[in-house]
Amino acid sequence: MLQRLFILLLLCCTALVQAQAQRLPTKEPQTHKKVQLLMGTRFELAAVTRDEQKAWEAIDAGIKEIQRIEALISEWQPTSQTSEINRNAGIKPVVVNQELYDLISRSNRISSMTGGAFDISFASIDKVWKYDGSMKALPTPDQIKASVSKINYKNIILNPENHSVFLKEPGMKIGFGAIGKGYAANRARDVMREMGIEGGVVNAAGDLVTWGKQPDGQPWYVGIADPEEKDKVFSWLTADNTAVVTSGNYEKFAEVGGQRYSHIIDPRTGYPAKGLKSVTIVCPNGELADALATTVSVLGKEEGLYLVNQLKGVECLLITDEDEIVTSESLSLHYYQNKKKTAAAQTATNK
Ligand code: ADP
Ligand code: MG
């Protein structure tokens, strides 16, 4: 009798284990991906999990978060707080959300750290350099000087008491073209991670942040495009819980008298940045990586490398106009692998 009971119990236990096994997802983790146009850019959000439904929920939450940020920071949407700040330039301070206030403060800190090479009031520029092929002659030095006369981060007046923002000069404007995508990618990653997604990538047209691992346990890799043939990858970076952001002048430039002029302009002089074809920044923070990619393009090889080597946890890979590849002091140790990976390991190539 006792023996029968034991067998029954054992059977029950087995049945219980089986039931549990059926309820538990038995699949290996998989990558679920969605592409969407956000902030005028092609975003791809990827989530690694066993639970497909959770993946789609988290991806949708990430997309909503990026849309929310766009509505707050866009200088193009008239209803955004950023547009309100711009409309009141030279008139009065505007009280804004803590979140926007903090983004502006962080942007200004990057400006002071870089001697104004990075400046969100860059949006005030008069476009004397044209990238649609319409430029036949160079602008005059006076035109160039005047084009940047309203840019000066020191005239963005922040009041921490009521978190208001005042642009001192009439005609001044701020915009987040060089930092907003990185901030949005950081936030989308945070939202997805908090929902229990153990690994993933938020990729804004090649500027990306990663967390966790690929489904097979490998780290994420990012291919760096060959400057000569931009559809070819010439090296791979290991992207372990990090952001990888590239600014480059492959596509957008003005050409006058056989000379190419970059779309990245030094706000301090009005002249296009020179010397670097492409700047890739690797660091854990997508926002900082985005801002620094633009900044190092402005600063050029020597000054740019100097800056990156001062910053803990920030690395870079630069390609000069002469196709020389230059890396920061620790990049090769941690990230840079000049060897081929299998196509399956590829998550993104830069633009
Ligand atoms: P992309 O968006 O092409 O990847 P970037 O991240 O370098 O390139 O950002 C380019 C945008 O940043 C431009 O649209 C311009 O509005 C803005 N920008 C250009 N130069 C600067 C600068 N020195 N400081 C701040 N913003 C800049
Ligand atoms: Mg940038």
TrEMBL record:
Transmembrane segments: none
E.C. no: 2.7.1.180
Enzymatic class: transferase
InterPro entries for this protein: ApbE, ApbE-like_sf
Alphabetized UniProt keyword annotations: FAD, Flavoprotein, Magnesium, Metal-binding, Signal, Transferase
Catalytic activity: L-threonyl-[protein] + FAD = FMN-L-threonyl-[protein] + AMP + H(+)
Family classification: Belongs to the ApbE family.
GO function terms (MF aspect): transferase activity
Superkingdom as given in the UniProt entry: Bacteria
The protein's name in its UniProt record: FAD:protein FMN transferase
Signal peptide interval: 1-19
Alphabetical list of Gene3D superfamilies matching this protein: ApbE-like domains
Names of the cofactor(s): Mg(2+)
